[in-house]
Amino acid sequence: MSDMTIGKVAEAVGVGVETIRFYERRGLIEQPPRPEGGGYRVYSDEAVQRVQFIRRAQELGFSLREIAGLLSLRTDHDTDAGEVRRLATDKLQDVDRKIERLQHIRRGLMTLLDRCPGEGPLRCCSIIDALEHDERLAGKPTKRKEPDMQTLRLAIEGMHCNGCAEIVRHVLERQAGVKGCSVSHENGEARVAVDTTQTSAEQLAEAVRGAGYSASIVTKAD
Known about the structure:
Blueprint: H1 6-13, H2 17-25, H3 45-59, H4 64-75, H5 81-115, H6 126-133, E1 149-157, H7 162-173, E2 178-184, E3 189-195, H8 201-210, E4 214-220
Keywords: DNA-binding, Mercuric resistance, Mercury, Metal-binding, Transcription, Transcription regulation
Domain HMA: 150-216
GO molecular function, one term: DNA binding
């Protein structure tokens, strides 16, 4: 490679022309002077190498501010390699912290999905309820015991319309430990997200029977 226009540099490195201009505005690469007789600015091999260096460093998670520091070290012949290693070690520790945080977020989302009955009106949504009231989702420390949440299925007979399903849903929502439920009169089934340390499946079925419907426990929902 020899002197190249900005478009050729962008093509060679695999970035957009505006990306190179952005790097120039941030002082990461030097903008070459425009030829006195007019024409396009031309970039040296060193400029191409710097753009490649910046892109590779970004792929490793370095910020532009950190990359500016690395570029300074790169051109300082008195720099000890230990300084570069320290910066890389700091970045690795930062990545590890981010991975730990993402794993925490993943566990929280899995917990929410396990509680969710998967259908029904929004006011029964256990995910919305948890986001509004569960402080653990904000990463705050808590000493509360983790609820033994399960999603239970009840087979219900005697429902003839959506009005019947609404009655059954209302009865179930009033039971202790119930975080969400959905009831379908077409399928003759209720799915209930419940803390089983507060209410058992049999207690839920008994509450439905008390409303005048036949109820039996099917199984824990998938």
